[in-house]
Amino acid sequence: MCERSPGESLDGMIDVRELTKRYDDTVAVDDLSFTVRPGHVTGFLGPNGAGKTTTMNVALGLHAPTSGEVLINGRRYRETRRPLHEIGALLDAGAVHPGRSALHHLQVLALTNGIGPRRVEETLEMVGLAGVARKKVGGFSLGMKQRLGVAAALLGDPAVVVLDEPVNGLDPDGVRWIRELLRSLAAEGRTVLLSSHLMSEMELTADRLVVIGRGRLITDTTVGELAERFGRLEDAYMYLTSESVEYR
Amino acid sequence: MTDVVRAEWLKMASVRFTAWSLLLTVLLGVGLSYLFGLSFRNGFSDTSAERQDFEPLFATFYSLTLAQLALVVFGVLVVGSELSTGTIRTSLAAVPQRGVFYAGKVLAVASTALGVSTVTVLGAYVTAQVALGPHRTSLGADGTVRAIVSAWLYLPLICLFGLGLAMMLGSSVRTLAVVLPVFFLGSQGLGNVPHVSAVAQYLPDQAGMVAMNLVGPQDDPQFARDYGPWIGLGILTLWAAAALIGGGLALRRRDI
Q1: Is B16 an 8 Å CB contact of chain A?
Q2: The whole model's pTM is what?
């Protein structure tokens, strides 16, 4: 497990500290602690219902923790002004208004955080949506919506990037594009946290892995270490989470 | 805060529904006003009793009880569509300080509704007087300016009431299922039903109607209300404030 050493810089770190989240009777996350550092792609793995999305929801200030906290750059998300400049997230690609164009969707976000129109165009080009910028998002395929979500996440040129299942719906071209994009973001010194169920992709994309089950930490290690012990990541995952699979 | 308000205006402007609902508000308000004016003028009786009861302001502003429905739907959907599409999560990720986010939305809707109201109320007043012809009222007549000001404030207040309620109830459908039947029945005379009227007269739309001279001659016991027009406006303001505050509290506490 990685503990932060005293005096280590807070910049770019996602610090999950003894996080517990209860919804009515269900404990979704139970005293979870781990740290995500810059310069790596960190994969966030676990069975359905393990608490990955809950952790991300709390990290982004969307859900309030029952106890504990998630700090990004040393601060809670709700206390961060103009957060898009520091933290970019893709949580639900489908969370767009179907009657709005891609361009307007991004322009609205840009306005709230003081980001200029040129940057909006840049990100649209970066994700390959420049040609359909003025089309309504309702007509987009899932892959296109994912790309729009990535554009929204990168709008503020943030040092921390959080993505929930970014590969969903992407064709092989898109899958490789995301993989290379994420690796290049990490190589630039940014912090990248991504959750995914696609083990084969995770193996190629991530350097570090945080595996959780039933709301608790199972392991916080490197892809290399798991490869040594188990060979394929899929085997490692199956072994580590065998006790934690439940259908919610 | 200006950034947030500008973003909210762009949100409204970038969706076709906004233009439709706002245009419908104006068309219903002005168009029906003209038609009611004509109909009142043609039906004007020669008996002196009816002439005494004749209220040109009723003809002028009754159209607003229907025009308001389009504006209320607008106010409800500004919140409700964010909730149903999930875009509220994107919005809150961009503006995590929920008070700021909510205030920005309320200000943007209030200013838009006020603009629509200005066009609608002035348009309704002018076209109704044209249609009423010799039976028209004037700005100098008793209560006219008060009714105009009340109507001008009524539309944004009822729109904001819808917005706050939608935030509290968490969905457009739930909110409209409550508000549309009540307001529509209100416009059709729910407030005059005996026994019901004792309570119904305190509903927000009913209170507003008192302020706009839409509840019939007050010396007639069938139509009498327990309060006058300025208090009516006050009651409506309280309803809107309560809904907005309730919505703000719901937003602050909710896991979204």
Answers
A1: yes
A2: 0.93
